[in-house]
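REQUEST ID: PR-0412
SUBMITTED BY: lab tech R.K.
PRIORITY: routine
TASK: structure prediction, single protein chain
INPUT:
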Amino acid sequence: MRRHAAPAAAALALALALSACGGGGHGPQPGQALSEAKQHLDQTQGVHFALTSSGVPSGVTTVTAADGILTRAPAFEGSITVPVHGLSVKVSVISVGGKTWAKLPFVPVYQPINPSDYGAPDPGTLLDPNTGISSLLPATTGVSAGSSQRGGEGNRSVLTDYHGTVPGATVAHVIPGSSGDFAATYTIDDQGYLSQAALTGHFNGGGQPASTYTVTVSDYGTTQQISPP
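STATUS: complete
OUTPUT:
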């Protein structure tokens, strides 16, 4: 009897692993998964934040990319890509305590700016529980679980997609100019942390083609002292 115990245990472990990777319904319910992801975002001291976009119509004044460190201060240090004089320009940005500075083209030093002039939010507010990235999660309706796959560093995590719909008014806090409902896909790991949010909808009026913005958050717990320039 003992000779059969080890193979049986191994088979059971393999079945459970395959079930976890295949989205076999053993994870949290969709609403619970989004709630837990919001809690993690609202409790972290900082994250690495990145934003990419596709299908943004030319001539639309809106941020199209960003990359940097967000902290609870609130503060941000990194770069954003925005329209400047008809061109898409990547600029260095610092935001601390509700004030934002940027190195604009041909200006070697940081200058105070109003992010809304460039179709961008104040990046320092993106960890705000009420208006930041995490505010998208409880505003999402019709949430359903999608597929699961291994990913993350060394493929050690199981990542599950959750699909739903977010009002444009909520998305506008993160991506100014959004209107109408947005299709959202959230990727959450098996520890309950949001790693990515893909938002597809219309910006600056429904007459424009749909665009997709992808928000990526990583390195939860990051600490960095960010000071005004």
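NOTES: The mean pLDDT is 86.
REVIEWED BY: pending
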